[in-house]
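Side project, low priority. Logging it here so it doesn't get lost.
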Amino acid sequence: MMPDAKDLFSYRRHWAHKFGPAPFLPMSREEMDILGWDACDIIIVTGDAYVDHPSFGMAVIGRVLEAQGFRVGIIAQPDWRDRRDFMRLGPPRLFFGVTAGNMDSMVNRYTAERRIRSDDAYTPGNIGGRRPDRATIVYSQRCREAYREVPVVIGGIEASLRRIAHFDYWQEKVRRSVLLDAKADLLLYGNAERAIVELAHRLAAGEPIHQIRDLRGSAFAIRQVPQGWTEIDSSQIDEPGPVEPHPDPYAETPQTGREQEAPAPGEGQKGEVRVVRFTRRPRGLDRARCVVRIPSYEQVRDDPVLYAHASRILHLESNPGNARALVQRHGRREVWINPPPVPLRTPELDRVFELPYQRVPHPAYGDARIPAYEMIRFSINIMRGCFGGCSFCSITEHEGRIIQNRSEQSILREVEQIRDLTPGFTGVISDLGGPTANMWRLHCRDPRIESSCRRLSCVYPGICKNLETDQMPLVRLYRKARALPGIKKVLIASGLRYDLAVETPEYVRELVTHHVGGYLKIAPEHTRPGPLSKMMKPGIGTYDRFKAMFDKYSRQAGKEQYLIPYFIAAHPGTRDEDMLELALWLKRNGFRADQVQAFLPSPMALATAMWHSGRNPLKKVTRHSETVFSPRGRRQRRLHKAFLRYHDPENWPLLREALQRMGRADLIGNGKRHLVPRWQPAGTGGKTQPQARRPAFRTRHTRADRGTGPRPGGRGRKGRRR
């Protein structure tokens, strides 16, 4: 069963609760003076503009801590070049909470081709360059420079995905845990409400931060494994093949006579740790007192196979019901990672989302436009987590596989709050969703199975027989939401798991009839089984089944609506031939992608382990296990993107060259069956070429360019070709 956890709102409130909730969490000393504060208990430093909305992490954590009675200040997008900007609110009494923001700072600042972005949706005015590279590290160092004695706690998605040694795509190397590079006292990963509330109360009670070692969802650095623990070598859980023995940090080194370092207070003494080396899978141990040793930073840095092995172990130990602590050696220190946090129960999640958010940006920004806020100001998050387990996605690694649901009543109250209080509301709810739109209230049928499961996905290679897939509760929620007075329409804009949707045809009917605004975006990602197996995505046949339902119910509703599919280029496991087949599928189905997405190896993702190691961590990793090809060079990645935009004349020279090399020159020509024409418009494709006579016909297209509306000559209302 899932471990017990203290109710998030059952703590005795800190004395400062007498000040009451702040209209906005203060960003200046003047605001603190108005509130009557002489100091902040906690200061949150963030790379995003401060928007007091439950879709922004700094607002959620700040309001949760405020509800516990703590005085919380915000330092948003500080000038990282000077420590003085980190001193604007004075020193916090308890700790600095540092986050890069809602996005990883490197993903925010750079494209998949490592080009710097000129914009930033989380910055007023959509201006780029307001946060540094690896913002968590830089902000933490400036906090230390400002007030050396104040503890620093890091969190958010950037820290969460870098909690162990990880491959850094931008430097093309394996980096240490961000905990060490940031020189932080503690790292909180995942949805950290439980951990940060307990941490704040314990620090307020006078407990030193270096003695707080039992918070679920936390990571910290120690000298050695504490006493009373049984250490299990990860190679005995999932054998990676011949491995160099892990250095024993508990024994003296007779060759040099060097003594072992003295442990930090409370970390035990030499010889008090039971070190276990099994010849077969360990059983019968107290999991609560077991720690799994994964290969050290130095080992995964130097050996890609061990990197893939360590990545697999981390993902296998991610279920809060059965996960064990992990430890990874970095030089002379250990990075200890406690098991994941216990998911919030529905009443707790309701209260988190119903705290007194203003639901608008801080007044300091005036009328400046913040695109990320404009995107979500009329949307509602109804759940957390995702059990899809897509190998390229970071949602599961951050929020977990167990769905955390809000109650129907709480969601409807938020709809009414948007209607009554949000400026500019016109009656349209832009989204009623979350990480995945249709996973609300889906769960394992047996809590005992759920707490012991170690599957990487509940829906791959097929939907688990223990998964409850009935989406009728969601249908009833949709009906009640759109029936509220003043609500004209409720749209669903979050990503949709179409392989789950087809399990409840009535859900598809309801969605298509009432909640699609002309276009529905879904993500089959590819059409070929090779790449799909590395993505952990269903076959294209499931897409065809969903499309048939979508078209049927659109016709019944008398609506002309379109599916807009998303695809990934250059994903591990994708060869040129796979992209060619995808391009031919797009042409047959009349799709013209306006923008395309190239795979970006984000830290800790399983697909990133494939990219770096050339091995498949979705299966047991050995020296002789399956190898995975990754399209790595700039030219090949450009080619894979070009296949998705086969219709763009700029890509035709590259595609012609590739088709000839692949022995598919038969696809070059001016007929309907050809992929690219022989002629080249003047001024396109690099060098200017004389324009050949165009063919007398034009190919008609039957679908919309992505996000730009239906093309002329598309389908009519009844779905027939004109």
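Brief comment: The longest strand covers residues 562-569.
Revisit when time allows.
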